[in-house]
């Protein structure tokens, strides 16, 4: 790969082959493996299939020591395979950034009940990790995804005592005894909703807002979209967010939205990225609607999150959010000499976070010292 070349994302995003560890310092130089999914013929299938790709990336990072996640392998359906060092670093930065925002939310007024709604949660392990990290927290956690994905998740929870032991035993539904193919689970602390998010978009015929069991309309709530809303049309996304911030969580309830999405589709790297994804029948409408960090901040304000709207790309997050000691630890995990390519990759993904406090200062206080790329 030429130092100033554009990485071929058909191999970067699809390769299952990793690089050499720092211990033997022998970088892999063979031809990268090109991975073809071949698992779905329509756009929804392609989107659903990205979840196991993400699960494999988390397992790769856990195996190499980037992340601590004892639950990642319990949800991965495919054999663990090592990702390229560039991709491992990207997954590490992505996870660390979102963890920081959520940790600050959890630590602010720890005695206060809080709620998290994870859109397109898939195999994400965050609820189980938060149970370990904040065992006494008053947390209501919701996950929303396609029924096929929620069924797979609940099946994994049923299989592993390490997972279902984290759920409340006083729930009407015992997760260990759910029937085969169960797609939903509801309790006072953890809820899995089998739902196509597009069904939440406002329509003329939909006069009565749909309800989500156990969603509390009155407690501070963080909504998380980690590569989820990016697959929908911008107008549909606006309608879905309006449903949450106006109907499910009306003022004066403090509410925030954390987004993880790609940016910069119009430069050479971005064009390769979008071309690669379209070859897999994956399209990202919000990428063209909100191509830069300023557009991401503006959309958050348009959603009614008027008390704060910030955004930072992953390259900024790596430089400014990750402590130097941690950078040294991560650098020692794998041999990585493609630093220009890494910077390019990191600059094309971002975290955007916005909030409405309604005078209560919940999110303003939690995130007051987290700087974005605007200063």
UniProtKB/TrEMBL annotation:
Any single biological process term in GO = methylation
Concerning InterPro entries, the annotation shows:
LCMT1, Ppm1/Ppm2/Tcmp, SAM-dependent_MTases_sf
What this protein catalyses is: [phosphatase 2A protein]-C-terminal L-leucine + S-adenosyl-L-methionine = [phosphatase 2A protein]-C-terminal L-leucine methyl ester + S-adenosyl-L-homocysteine
Source organism, top-level taxon: Eukaryota
Keyword tags: Methyltransferase, S-adenosyl-L-methionine, Transferase
Binding annotation for S-adenosyl-L-methionine: 94, 120, 196-197, 226
Gene Ontology terms for molecular function: protein C-terminal leucine carboxyl O-methyltransferase activity
Q: What is its EC number?
A: 2.1.1.233
Pfam families associated with the record: LCM
What does the sequence similarity comment in the record state about its family? Belongs to the methyltransferase superfamily. LCMT family.
- Function per UniProt: Methylates the carboxyl group of the C-terminal leucine residue of protein phosphatase 2A catalytic subunits to form alpha-leucine ester residues.
Instruction: Tell me what this protein is called.
Output: Leucine carboxyl methyltransferase 1
């Amino acid at each position: 790969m030429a130092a100033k070349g554009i990485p071929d994302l058909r191999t970067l995003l699809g390769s299952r082959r990793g690089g050499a560890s720092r211990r033997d310092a022998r970088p892999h130089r063979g031809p990268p493996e090109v991975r073809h999914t071949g698992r779905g013929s329509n756009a929804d299938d392609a989107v659903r299939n990205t979840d196991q790709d993400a699960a494999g990336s988390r397992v790769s990072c856990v195996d190499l020591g980037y992340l601590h996640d004892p639950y990642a392998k319990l949800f991965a359906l495919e054999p663990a395979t090592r990702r390229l060092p560039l991709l491992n670093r990207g997954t590490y930065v992505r996870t660390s950034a979102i963890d920081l925002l959520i940790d600050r939310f959890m630590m602010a007024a720890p005695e206060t009940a809080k709620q998290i709604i994870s859109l397109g949660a898939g195999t994400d392990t965050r609820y189980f990790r938060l149970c370990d990290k904040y065992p006494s927290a008053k947390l209501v956690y919701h996950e929303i995804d396609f029924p096929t994905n929620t069924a797979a998740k609940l099946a994994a929870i049923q299989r592993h005592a390490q997972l279902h032991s984290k759920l409340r035993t006083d729930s009407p539904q015992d997760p260990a005894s759910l029937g085969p193919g169960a797609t939903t689970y509801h309790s006072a602390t953890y809820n899995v909703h089998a739902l196509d998010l597009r069904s939440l978009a406002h329509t003329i015929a939909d006069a009565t807002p749909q309800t989500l069991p156990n969603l509390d309309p009155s407690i501070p709530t963080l909504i998380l979209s980690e590569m989820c809303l990016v697959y929908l049309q911008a107008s549909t996304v606006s309608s879905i967010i309006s449903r949450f911030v106006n109907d499910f969580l009306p003022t004066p309830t403090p509410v925030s939205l954390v987004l993880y999405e790609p940016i910069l589709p119009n430069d050479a790297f971005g064009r390769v990225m979008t071309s690669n994804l379209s070859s897999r029948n994956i399209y990202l409408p919000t990428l063209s609607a909100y191509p830069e960090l300023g557009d991401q901040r503006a959309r958050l304000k348009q959603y009614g999150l008027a008390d704060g709207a910030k955004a930072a790309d992953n390259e900024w997050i790596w430089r400014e959010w990750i402590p130097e000691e941690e950078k040294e630890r991560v650098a020692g995990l794998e041999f990585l000499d493609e630093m220009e390519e890494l910077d390019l990759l990191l600059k094309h993904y971002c975290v955007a976070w916005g909030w409405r406090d309604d005078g209560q200062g919940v999110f303003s206080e939690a995130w007051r010292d987290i700087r974005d790329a605007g200063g």
